């Protein structure tokens, strides 16, 4: 599924090796099925390039087949289930304030980490070959993703509190009591859901939908 892109990315290496490598065998080798998280393609690409330069095509193919599945799982956990919802919650917080910079906040929160993994992962692969897996291992992705999910829950709770204070949910004497109670419920519910390993995307969209329906009725 990503084999064409991978083979295309390897073309400069083929051009550098001139007659030392059979172009047909080289391309067939890298047109085999390849599918992983897009961000984690870079570390694999770097390692494969290093092994091809060292004349170890069998090891290059082996490391592709070995790493693509676990790297796909790590990427989905870190980006799809953690960083992206967290960045969206941060952007939502600014959007509730009417700030036009809300989309920029999302990009500022999301972009640095994926660019770092792409750049440093590729260079680590080129420098260390198959030993570059230590770079990803040292990041402790599961723990990092867990911390980001907690941050997402906090941002979502703050966004719920801000939404409750917009003045549309006033209960007696001009005190936005009902809105604040609902906001507190969202905050506590978000923390509980994260503790129960509920996907952050489900927390984000579920909380937003629930608050929307309740506030519409109020």
What does this protein look like?
It is a single chain. This protein is mainly alpha-helical. The chain has helices spanning 3-16, 23-30, 41-53, 57-96, 102-128, 133-139, 141-164, 177-195, 200-217. Helices cover 78% and strands 0% of the residues.
Key features?
single chain, 218 residues, mainly alpha, 2 domains, 78% helix, 0% strand, elongated
Helix content: over 70%
From the N-terminal CA to the C-terminal CA, the straight-line distance is 49 Å
Largest sheet, in brief, is: none
Low-confidence stretches: 167-175
Beta strand count = 0
Q: In percent terms, what proportion of residues is strand? A: under 5%
SSE pattern, N- to C-terminal: HHHHHHHHH
Helices and strands in order:
Layout: H1 3-16, H2 23-30, H3 41-53, H4 57-96, H5 102-128, H6 133-139, H7 141-164, H8 177-195, H9 200-217
Helix pairs in contact: 1-2, 1-3, 3-4, 3-5, 4-5, 4-7, 7-8, 7-9, 8-9
Describe the structure concisely for a colleague.
With about 220 residues, the protein is mostly helical. Helix content is about 80%, strand content about 0%.
């Amino acid at each position: 599924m990503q084999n064409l892109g991978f083979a295309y990315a390897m073309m400069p290496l083929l051009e550098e090796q001139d007659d030392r490598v059979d172009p047909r065998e080289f391309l067939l080798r890298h047109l085999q099925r390849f599918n992983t998280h897009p961000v984690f393609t870079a570390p694999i690409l770097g390692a494969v390039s290093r092994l091809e330069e060292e004349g170890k095509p069998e090891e290059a193919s082996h490391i592709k087949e070995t790493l693509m599945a676990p790297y796909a799982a790590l990427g989905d956990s870190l980006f799809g289930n953690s960083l992206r919802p967290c960045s969206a919650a941060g952007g939502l917080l600014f959007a509730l304030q009417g700030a036009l910079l809300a989309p920029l906040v999302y990009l500022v929160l999301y972009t640095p980490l994926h660019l770092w993994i792409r750049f440093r992962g590729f260079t680590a692969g080129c420098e260390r070959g198959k030993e570059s897996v230590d770079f990803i291992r040292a990041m402790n992705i599961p723990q990092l993703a867990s911390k980001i999910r907690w941050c997402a829950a906090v941002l979502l709770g703050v966004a719920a509190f801000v939404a409750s204070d917009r003045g549309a949910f006033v209960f007696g004497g001009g005190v936005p009591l009902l809105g604040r109670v609902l906001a507190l419920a969202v905050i506590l519910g978000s923390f509980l859901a994260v503790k129960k390993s509920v996907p952050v995307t489900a927390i984000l969209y579920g909380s937003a939908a629930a608050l929307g329906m309740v506030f519409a009725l109020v």
